[in-house]
Amino acid sequence: MSGLPGMRAKKFGCAMLLGLLLTGCAGMSGNPDMPQRSDLFQLSNDAQLAYESGEDAKAEQLYMALLRKTPNDPEIWFRLGNLYARAHRPDAAADAYQRVLSINNTEHRAWYNLGIVRLRQGWAALLQAYGHSAPGDLVNTESERMIGHLERMPGLPSVRKNEAGAKK
Predict the structure, then answer these.
(1) Cβ-based neighbour number of residue 162 at 10 Å
(2) Is the pLDDT assigned to residue 14 strictly greater than 90?
(3) What pTM was computed for the model?
(4) Contact 41, 72 (CB under 8 A)
């Protein structure tokens, strides 16, 4: 969604490396409850590779495993949100982006992606409202007006209004 895939991978790798470095002392203390740095790094790397190769189910499992070990890592939540958005799971994507923002409310990428997901959800709802309302009805007229405004926005799918949904 936001940025180039290579740049996202580098940012994610840097964020994970920083996180691993910050937890380094805890990992060396011998505490069996703390995940080992090499395990986290390998799991992160595997998740990233699965994500980039389009293996969404595997990537989701790996990201969820990472979150069980580091539940407050905003970068993992962000990647999971991207995965859900790509898989056309907007509610799950929005939830993941909201989780990022609950950890770091200045994360501009999460704000942007959340906005895009919500715009797409609104677009789909307006198309349904238009398609299920009768011509001349206030909802039909207002939905058509809003759809006209949104049609000029980049990033939303092009749909002819007669495909917007079955009329009653």
Answers:
(1) 9
(2) no
(3) 0.70
(4) no
Q: Rounded CA gap, 48 and 76, in Å?
A: 10
Helices 5-22 and 74-86: angle between axes, nearest 10 degrees: 150
Tokens read off for 10: 């580098």
Residue position matching structure tokens 């790996």? 62
Q: Which of 118, 168, 150 is nearest to 142 (CA)?
A: 150
For residues 61-96, b (16+ Cβ closer than 10 Å) or e, as one string? ebbebbbeebeebbbbbbbbbbbbbeeebbebbbbb
- CA 61, 38, 6 angle in degrees (round to 5)? 65
Side chain identity at 68, as an amino acid letter?
R
Does residue 69 carry a pLDDT above 90?
Answer: yes
**Based on the number of CB atoms within 10 Å of its own CB, is 25 exposed (0-12), middle (13-18) or buried (19 or more)?**
exposed
The encoded tokens of residue 89 equal 């799971």
Is 157 a residue whose pLDDT tops 60? yes
Angle formed by the axes of helices 74-86 and 90-103, nearest 10°: 160
């703390």: which residue's tokens? 34
Look at residues 18, 24, 25 and name the one whose alpha carbon lies nearest to residue 44.
18
Q: Give yes or no for residue 23 having a pLDDT over 50.
A: no
* Residue carrying structure tokens 């979150």: 67
